[in-house]
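User: Is it possible to get a 3D structure for a protein together with its bound compound? The compound here is zinc ion. I've pasted both below.
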Amino acid sequence: MSLTLNRKHLDAINHHAERTYPDECCGLLIGRLTETGRVVSEIWTTENTWTQEVADEMGDGLLASKTRRYWIAPQEMLAVMKAARQQGLEIVGIYHSHPDHWAIPSECDRRLAWPQYSYLIVSVVQGKVINAQSWALDDHHQFQSETLHALECPRMRRESLIPNA
Ligand SMILES: [Zn+2]
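Assistant: Yes, that's possible. Here is the predicted structure of the complex:
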């Protein structure tokens, strides 16, 4: 499988990750599932709502901090899912950042992951995004990396060809 998005989507995610540093940022990838992979048509920025309460619920007491964890409110996810469906789209993935860490899923990421989604992780080092990697669960609930295609936005490319008026 692969994850395809536009350069502008990736730019928006990077910007979100840098803005929330040193906390993790998170959001939803909305699009379509195709034969070759998941194709993103828009991104939905969400609040990182990780709290001590969520940590306790997840049995993850001591490391509970937004610098190491993220949480998307289930009711927001449901609302976005419904809105996407009305446009013939679906949630195809979740993105989040790893401040001062590699773009590799943590054990917590793995435990909480759903098999139907791509998990895009961006690594932010000292406030700057250095790379991104997409992951998806295999049949054994283990993450495998997947190809990340970042397409140039066609509209932006056309506009750049128009000489200055
Ligand atoms: Zn993570």
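The radius of gyration is 16 Å. Residues 80 and 86 are 10 Å apart (CA to CA).
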